[in-house]
Amino acid sequence: MESKQNWADEALITAIARKDHDAFRVLIERYQGKVLGSIYRYVGNRNIAEDLAQDIFIKVYKSAGRYQPKAKFSTWLFKLVVNHCINYQRHLKKDPFGKLKYIEEPLGDSDYITASVLENKDPETILSQKERITFLRKAINSLPERQKMAVILQRFEGLSYAEIGEIMGCSVKAVESLLQRAMVTLKESLTPYV
Amino acid sequence: MKCLEVQKRLKAFLDSELNPKDEMRIRQHLDSCPQCAQEREELSKTWDLLSELPAIESPGDLFPRILQKIETEETKGFLRNFLGRLIILPTYALAGLALIVGLFLGGTMGKYLYSNTFVPAPEMEINGEGEEPFYQEIFADLSPRSLEEVYFQLSNESERNGRS
Hints:
- The structure holds two protein chains of two kinds.
- Chain A has eight helices and no strands.
- By secondary structure, chain A is mostly helical.
- Chain A has a domain at about 1-105: Rna Polymerase Sigma Factor, Chain: A.
- The model of chain A is unreliable at about 105-115 (pLDDT under 50).
- Among the domains of chain B are: about 5-50, no CATH class; about 65-120.
- In chain B, about 70% of the residues lie in helices and about 0% in strands.
- Chain B has six helices and no strands.
- In chain B, α3 packs across α4 (about 35-50).
- The relative contact order of chain B is 0.04.
- The model of chain B has no long low-confidence stretch (mean pLDDT about 80).
- The chains are: A mainly alpha, B mainly alpha.
């Protein structure tokens, strides 16, 4: 049986529309890092990030039959990520008790974080770095929703302004403005470390 | 280019997202403006700082968890539809049955009421002849002291009075 690992995204999604679970598994493995990474940087909580990532892949599964290959699959996928995250954030703001769920995880030894950030460093350096990361997180979280998402997509997913514009449903000029304003705000917030 | 204009586009400049003409103009300005050059440096350092934000390792069991959620939702959906049909079908059947029973009962009651409460008017007895339907022979003599005879007399009188 031919391995589906080499299949293009569009071929996989066509198979998923026929309820091909093997194709679905390959697609998840291909994109789970990006999806989970983006969501985690956006919400700052591992459990919530995993829940939201699951929701997104379930949406992919259910709407695979409606996918039109007009744009890249990754663009379509990130549109789902952006909309889901921003909707989640707005829902959280409306629900005062929901704020209890939105707890940023403090960095700890057992945290679900790539070890490379902290490996081979002395305790003082690690502590200092943890403080910086906490500070960084707070600074990013203080950004308005769309600015925050634009920063995550550009800085961590390496997307171009045009791609971000397509995902977020705005012009390249609007993306440029979002990122410029976000960077000025972050620069002011992170002055001690810049 | 003015400083304000340059500073608004520094991020795009750093990301190489400007067209060649704008990029060259901003580069020329930065070469001659220490303030804007400083601003560019600070933005660049801020951007580099963001790389310290940690990533997250993907859990190994994301796919089976997602599949299980889908299967649970599909089972719930199936049960919901099935139970829904179980409730709806008898409801329609009952409604139809109630209609039929209602029509039958209504018809039966109507017949009963008609046959038991409607009493046809008794045949009028004319001159002792009870069974025959009443009719007046036009030229038959009026019965003496009958209502018809009295009325006939009165109308003849008023006619005579009118002529005279």
